[in-house]
Amino acid sequence: MHRNRADHPPTRPGRLIGAGATIAALALAGSALGAAPAYAAEPDFGPNVTIFDDTWTADQISAALMAASTEEEFSLDRHQFFFKPGTYGSAAGQNNPATATGIVNSELGYYQAVAGLGASPEDVRINGAIHVEPVRACEANPWDCQQPGSLTRFWRSMSNLTFNPIQRAIGADANRPFPSGTADAHQLRFAVSQAAPLRRINIEGKLTLMGRVGEYASGGYLANSKVSGEVLSGSQQQWFTRNSSVGTWNGGVWNMVFSGVSGAPATDFAQPVGNGLGNKTNVAQTPINREAPFLYLDGSDYKVFVPKAKQSTSGVDWSTSAASGQSIPIGDFFIAHEGATAAQLNAALAAGKHLLITPGVYYLDAPLDVDRAGTVVLGLGYASLVPTAGNAAIEVGDVAGVKIAGLTVDAGEVLSDVLVKVGPDGASTSDPADPTTLSDVFIRVGGPWAGKATTSIEVNSPDTLLDHIWAWRADHGEGVGWTSNVGDHGVVVNGDDVTALGLFVEHYQKNQVIWNGERGRTIFFQSEIPYDAPTQGAYKDGNRLGYAAYRVGDHVRHHLAQGLGVYSFFDNQYNQSQDIFVESGVQVPQRPGVRVESAVSVKLNGTGGIKHIVNDQGDAAQGAGGGVSKFLAVYESATDPNAQNLQVTVPEGAPGEFVWSIDGTNDIVDLGTAVENGDHFAAAGTINPVRVTDTRRGATPWSVSAQVGDFDSPGGSFGGKYLGWAPKIVEAGGGAVAGAAVQSGFVSGNGLAHSSALGSAPAGHERGSAKLGADLDLRIPVSATDGTYRATLTITGLG
């Protein structure tokens, strides 16, 4: 995020039919402060993990947390703090934080993660607050300095905790004339921007997401959490809340998105609200989600709980039952400590181990090869991976069900083609019920040093789930410049049926996101295009001004994106006050099936701006000054400008013609009711035959091929790739030969979602007529919603 902003206001079985045609001194488990209780032998989590239990006083806990909260923004130290089940701190003074005693009270700093070790957030109760405060630039009168505020409050997190909020200023802040850390009774402040998630948090009171006097903040993420009282987002420019419960919600500037959230405000995006336009988008149910894996105690045994993926969900889910996920014993994990090499980590993976990567910076001369389905790679305390030889940090094989969570990847100083690669090129293996999932995976290109990577995350595996991603080409820190920290793209999606929930991608030098896969879906996107483009000529996509931040491939037929914010700040310290523009923040194919909802363009400051919001629609965010915002409620095309309706008349008896037609009828081909067959539903049928007649004198070769679209019903859809066939010659003649059989994509490949030959004849074939047919084989995942589905099989003849 940038550090200079313009002013903002504070504020199952289915019926299926086919259609024809470092602070080591704080690692105190077993320290002189008290003997550990009778837990099983503690695993060796290394010097950067601290585990609190009932031998610690509230003051000792606060001191340990506060000592770790002072890391610099680009420090190489990492810290994880855990609370064993129990109650910490006193609730006696909860109604007056200024005089409360015995509370846990600390700020939360860079690279500091705090989590409970209970099976439920309610197993660890904190009377007090672990809070995040803005940067102070004006000591005597903070109202005079709304920035930087929280614009750079990154890389910190809390999870699996219950708070009875009792917060007051601490340390140097407590001695200020107007302390930032002072809060209302029963209120917790978490004034952050990117890469600072709250997960499985239970707040018995209020939560504020901005500084005490409304200092700027630039977005965050809240998931699987409860807040009984008000959430005050105020000056937050954007925020994503998923599968949670809130009492009330108040505030926000441009792009506030809710998915599966009880108590969330209704959608009012782009609607008149007060003196402005609404900024809220409410998606009633999250189409698919999987909560992040986490370490917990089952009695005295450490385990990692891996939640199952679920479809069409809302509200919280804190269960650790077998029905809700899998508990993996800590013995099944290789516990990596700082200094571990790529060879050591890959040897553990090859031996069938999962990885638990403890806090630290890991320098890798080869990628982590995750080639076993279901592997879990879990980072603690913002563990960071750094490729050193132009390699990737992680490469996932053509397998399903991999879970990667809690990791930061820093591009190395040698250019990498890609940093995280999910599936090899052309990957086809997937499991919609157990998608490969990336949760809280954060990328940096530059900042600690001049990192270089062409693409940060590349997704080739179908059905992948991205759950809270921040890919960031640094705009400040070390090694920052147009020719220094180079990076073209933050996220490139090539796989089909990929879902992104909370996608933050910023400052890359070309398209921030490229989405080539079919049936992709994004709920919440936030992007700043680069500040440092030196000229318009250096920042131009062919003849198009600039690069769209969110780019859907021209060939894509189905895509849905909801809650998108694209911001410009062409900083004149880089471009000598030249006006630099972006044609549109979002660029998608203009065809039915591609839809964008709730998109906003903002000129934050600087020169130039964004001329359109989506394609050629939406007003320009440009002009003098900053804070210019333009809103577009919906973009959807009713027609495809690249499609043509074809008609041809062949006169009867015309000599030397090549013609084909569906023989007899073009009615619905009914595949009947699908039958459950283990891990899929199966249905079969036969297409209406296609008659081909070729009486041309030159005996030119011909072919007839077909391709199927998605199967749709009022309640859902699934991809055409699940349809396969076995072509055959129903009636021989004219040298016709049948095309090759194509397997259902459930077995392998892409099925009939790709054009496949029904039949053909070579050059020099005899003149005559043939009838072509095919037996259909439809195999559908058992996760498909019940209903009657239809699809269109488009037949094409070439001769």
TrEMBL record:
Record keywords: Signal
Transmembrane segments: none
Signal peptide: 1-40
Source organism (scientific name): Agromyces allii
Family annotation (InterPro entries): Pectin_lyas_fold, Pectin_lyase_fold/virulence, SACTE_4363, TAT_signal
PROSITE patterns named among the record's database cross-references: TAT
Protein's name in the database: Uncharacterized protein
